[in-house]
């Protein structure tokens, strides 16, 4: 969409406000709104100024001036505002006009540019399956003398005996019993459909939605794959629309990986493939899972670099509450066709040559999608360039249920890091693959590690309620 087309859209739809957005290191969107009457061609040439020192991990107060440079291709109408508002994503530049090397969106674009310089392919496609919970009530507090959280859902398995409903209507979702039941057990069909309608109006191609495995309103909506940066843009749009549609229904949505103890967490399985001038490069008929050797080497790069990669794809302390055995969590760094207990799965049902892809199941939605997708691509490309063979390294294929293997057999399988600190240590030791072609800078990686270590420390030094169970009577 050209600048003129955006200006025409503003007039045609009687837009009152233009909301310019960028994304910080955390992956959360930030925004500044301008009156539509103040937006003209110069706005798209000169950008929109903001204070970079107020964004964690960006700049100090002595270098705070930064500029959002709008990307007109991302424009869509906000479905929630009372005053007609147009949303536009932006890249971040310095006042000198240079691309800011800590801007996650620019890093995603540099990863796409790097792919084209390798001669391997011309385009990488991504499709995330970002799961979430829809709760009715969320309360939490952390202080000197108290620490707790409490969530509730009308369909939660723990509410089979609740009287406050004015007559309990039963049909609650059992623990681990929420995968695709029909109503009345699935009470959230309409809210998910409304989310999908709004997403479609905002430009996403919706493929399906359904209730997920966990109790208490776990859900999933799938949208069509696209190129790396566009998919990251779409994921931010997805999370924004899901959260605000839930709010319209008097509910709250969260993409937190593990909000409930004792049931499945929410992942963000990411499907990936590479094309060259429109031709798929991951397909080879008759090979294992119909995968080409290039795809096998891509998997090799993902699995070889996985400990470091996970610092970016699972960048929260809560991520590692999900990455434990027993809850369909992909903790095993192996690959397999159709096996959901492996970190890398190759879908084999109803797959065409163009649909041939790999699925990295470890990530979750605390990840900044621009950074996560870029890092995955860089790991895969490193595997292709170095011909990393996951078969030779003992990464599979494993086509049996790994959770049912003996302890001795499991001991031979490499697992994901156990904590965020372990993942950050791995990233500190293995980051060279990210800096190829200047996609990630070492300054960015060092800054990112420092920021995330600070988050981990905030959790580590706080008293956990369960410590009272374990140690109060010592």
TrEMBL record:
First-level EC class: ligase
Coiled-coil residues: none
Binding site for Mg(2+): 129, 131, 212, 220, 269, 359
Subcellular location: Cytoplasm
Principal place of residence: cytoplasm
Pfam families the record matches: Gln-synt_C, Gln-synt_N
Cofactor binding mode and count: Binds 2 Mg(2+) ions per subunit.
Family: Belongs to the glutamine synthetase family.
Cross-referenced NCBIfam families: GlnA (TIGR00653)
Protein name in UniProt: Glutamine synthetase
Gene name in the database record: glnA
């Amino acid at each position: 969409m050209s600048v003129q087309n955006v200006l025409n859209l503003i007039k045609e739809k009687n837009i009152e406000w233009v909301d310019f957005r960028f994304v910080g290191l955390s992956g959360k969107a930030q925004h500044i709104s301008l009156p539509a009457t103040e937006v003209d061609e110069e706005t798209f040439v000169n950008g929109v100024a903001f204070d970079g020192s107020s964004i964690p991990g960006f700049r100090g107060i002595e270098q705070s001036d930064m500029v959002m440079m709008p990307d007109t291709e991302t424009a869509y109408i906000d479905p929630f505002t009372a005053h007609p508002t147009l949303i536009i994503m932006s890249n971040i530049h310095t006042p000198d006009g240079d691309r800011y090397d800590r801007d996650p969106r620019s890093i995603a674009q540099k990863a796409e540019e790097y792919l084209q310089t390798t001669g391997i392919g011309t385009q990488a496609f991504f499709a995330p399956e970002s799961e979430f919970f829809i709760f009715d009530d969320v309360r939490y507090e952390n202080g000197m003398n108290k620490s707790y959280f409490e969530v509730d859902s009308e369909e939660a398995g723990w509410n089979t005996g609740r009287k406050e409903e004015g007559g309990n209507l039963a049909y609650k979702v059992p623990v681990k019993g929420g995968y695709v039941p029909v109503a009345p057990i699935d009470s959230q069909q309409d809210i998910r459909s409304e989310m999908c309608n709004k997403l479609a109006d905002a430009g996403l191609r919706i493929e399906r939605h359904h209730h997920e495995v966990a109790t208490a309103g776990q859900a999933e909506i799938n949208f069509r794959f696209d190129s790396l940066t566009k998919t990251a843009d779409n994921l931010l749009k997805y999370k924004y629309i899901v959260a605000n549609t839930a709010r319209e229904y008097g509910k709250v949505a969260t993409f937190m990986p593990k909000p409930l103890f004792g049931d499945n967490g929410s992942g963000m399985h990411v499907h990936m493939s590479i094309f060259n001038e429109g031709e798929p490069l991951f397909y080879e008929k008759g090979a294992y899972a119909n995968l080409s050797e290039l795809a096998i080497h891509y998997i090799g790069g993902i699995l070889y670099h996985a400990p470091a990669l996970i610092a970016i794809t699972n960048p929260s302390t809560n991520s590692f509450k999900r990455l434990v055995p027993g809850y369909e969590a992909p903790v095993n760094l192996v690959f397999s066709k159709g096996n959901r207990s492996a970190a890398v799965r190759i879908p084999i049902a109803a797959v065409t040559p163009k649909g041939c892809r790999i699925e990295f199941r470890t990530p979750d939605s605390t990840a900044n999608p621009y950074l996560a997708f870029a890092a995955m691509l860089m790991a895969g490309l490193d595997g292709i360039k170095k011909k990393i063979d996951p078969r030779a390294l003992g990464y599979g294929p494993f086509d049996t249920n790994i959770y049912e293997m003996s302890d001795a057999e499991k001991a031979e399988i490499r697992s994901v890091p156990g904590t965020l600190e372990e993942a950050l240590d791995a990233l500190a030791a293995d980051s060279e693959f990210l800096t190829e072609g200047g996609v990630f800078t070492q300054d960015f990686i060092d800054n990112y590690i420092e920021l995330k270590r600070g988050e981990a420390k905030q959790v580590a030094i706080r008293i956990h309620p369960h410590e009272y169970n374990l140690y109060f009577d010592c």
